[in-house]
Specification:
Length: 104
């Protein structure tokens, strides 16, 4: 089973504005969650900073879209790991070099 998230938009009559392309001859389970804040879903556009206009900065994506939940979860988990490791005492011998870690 493969999960995909689609955000669909309806017109004033409640009809889908765009019908998604689905795989042929498959059953699809649909769970509908009504989004109350439509403005949060729509992408907004902002004006670039002045140093972007001077070719000092490259924009690689939408600057105003918040990080996805998976990115936020990864960030929180990394911070939790680093915090836990910083509380642990250092143990073991240091009889290795950084380059030896990459030898297979």
């Amino acid at each position: 089973m493969e999960a995909k998230r689609l955000i669909l938009e309806t017109d004033a009559a409640g009809n889908l504005k765009q019908v998604p392309k689905l795989p042929p001859n498959q059953q699809v389970e649909v769970i509908v969650l009504m989004l109350t804040d439509v403005k949060a879903v729509r992408q907004t556009h902002s004006t670039p900073r002045s140093d972007t206009a001077n070719n000092k900065l490259n924009i690689l994506g939408n600057m105003t879209t918040p990080a996805s939940q998976t990115e936020e979860r990864s960030r929180r988990m990394k911070l939790a790991l680093l915090e836990r490791l910083s509380r642990q005492p250092i143990t073991g011998e240091r009889n290795w070099t950084r380059s030896s870690l990459y030898d297979f």
